[in-house]
Write a structure and sequence with these properties.
By secondary structure, this protein is α/β, with parallel strands linked by helices. It has a domain of about 120 residues. The protein has 6 helices and 12 strands. The strands form 3 sheets. A 6-stranded mixed β-sheet has the order 1-2-5-6-7-11, with helices on one face. Strands 8-9-10-12 form a 4-stranded antiparallel β-sheet. The protein has a two-stranded antiparallel sheet with strand order 3-4. Helix 4 packs across helix 5. The chain is globular, with a radius of gyration of 19 Å.
Amino acid sequence: MSKSIETTLICSKCKKHSHITVWESINVNLDPWLKQKVVDGSLFIVSCPRCSARQIVKSPALYHDPMYKFMVWWFPKDDEGNQHYNLEQLNLFIPMTPRYKLRIVSSLNELREKIFIFEHELDDRATEILKSDIWNTLLEKRGVKKNSIYFSTAYHESGEQTIEFMYFDPDGNSRVICARGKNGYSRAIDLLLSMHVPADETPHWEIIDSSFWSLVQKTRDQGVKIEVEKKELSIP
């Protein structure tokens, strides 16, 4: 079941204290109304009752989707850029989650991305390989940061699977870029298999982010390039 607690928040603007509701866990099977609030971020945004300033509540939250069999635990970074969690406590969930994908993320954008990836029944390790090639091929020279590229959606067009990624350019504008074709997602999956990365995971908590990109070096060693569509579209 989903779980929330009442706590006190100090407003970042007026420094006044107020009582707020913080969600510690979200089970979208039992409480489907919470899903959209996670995706649009509103579940973690509060308004100060005194000055109306809005801010994100950066508190650990567990997102649980029993239908697609995944859990994502958001542990926000502190002011020094560190995450704090007790892996032994997290591992207590493993016996209850056979055949689950278990992930740890550090930002709300990463949480949303994992939800989109797993709802499309894709492998987030393969999408990280795609991100890497897109960044190295097209976006690095444009000043785009590695950690500002996110999976958006996937679909089939003209018989080919297309993966869309959203990224932020140096001016902070959001854009979309697509990867498709035989050297796209399916080739990334083949690469995982060649590296003896099992398709069916043994449940354990993992951080799958841009640090996973080291696998891409093997892609280049094998002379394989991911096919990337050149057009870019602005997101309204």
